[in-house]
Write a structure and sequence with these properties.
With about 220 residues, the protein is mostly helical. The protein has a domain of about 140 residues: Four Helix Bundle (Hemerythrin (Met), subunit A). Helix 1 packs antiparallel against helix 2, helix 2 packs antiparallel against helix 3 and helix 3 packs antiparallel against helix 5. The termini are far apart. The mean pLDDT is about 85.
Length: about 220
């Protein structure tokens, strides 16, 4: 009986010890697992921070690249606008000079009192020469700079060129063919004058409006 009691006590002690060991093992395992989790979390945190930093650097590089592209585009647009304005300024000046020369060439009544025939002829030759030079200067410049103009402006200038060429041909018919003044040459001169004063002038006004739109001076 005593032995049985002792055995039971021993079993109890062993069970208690086993429980303690098991508890200690569980506690230790829990602590080790917590440490593992903590280490793993720190590792994950470091990785995440590194990824965030890399993403931030990548984004900053992209933004810097976008800013550089935008600045380049703005610079190009600014240079293009400046070039357009310069071309239009020179083209408009040449256009006005041509129109004034054509008005003088096709003017019907001129004060020639007191002038000799040679002086009248020389004056006429100078009018023809001035108109021809103004015509060539304007359209030579236009041909080399038309890339800076929009299609509508080019279409208007092409029409002006055609009308001006026709008016010049009509106005100088008598001089080119060395004919005497008659009704036919008078009508040609009249048609040339009407082209310059009405048709070409209307086209020039439309072109001026188009130039204002191009340079932003509405």
């Amino acid at each position: 009986m005593i032995q049985s009691i002792e055995i039971l006590k021993l079993i109890g002690i062993i069970a208690s010890a086993s429980t303690l060991i098991t508890g200690a093992t569980v506690y230790l395992g829990k602590k080790l697992f917590e440490q593992y989790l903590n280490k793993d979390f720190e590792k994950f945190k470091i990785q995440l921070e590194q990824q965030n930093e890399n993403s931030k650097l990548k984004l900053e590089k992209q933004l810097e690249s976008y800013r550089a592209d935008l600045n380049l585009l703005n610079s190009q647009q600014s240079q293009l606008y400046t070039k357009k304005a310069e071309v239009i300024e020179q083209l408009y000046q040449l256009m006005v000079e041509l129109h004034m020369a054509m008005l003088e060439l096709t003017r019907t009544f001129k004060n020639v009192s007191g002038m000799t025939e040679d002086e009248i002829k020389n004056q006429r030759d100078e009018e023809i020469r001035s108109a021809a030079q103004a015509h060539n200067k304007f359209f030579q410049f236009y041909r080399t700079k038309k890339i800076y103009l929009d299609k509508k402006a080019c279409e208007l200038i092409d029409k002006i060129k055609q009308q001006t060429s026709d008016a010049f041909t009509e106005a100088t018919f008598r001089e080119r063919f060395q004919t005497s003044p008659d009704k036919y040459t008078f009508n040609l001169a009249k048609e040339a004058r009407e082209k310059v004063e009405k048709d070409i002038n209307a086209l020039l006004e439309t072109l001026e409006d188009e130039f204002r739109l191009i340079i932003g001076n509405k």
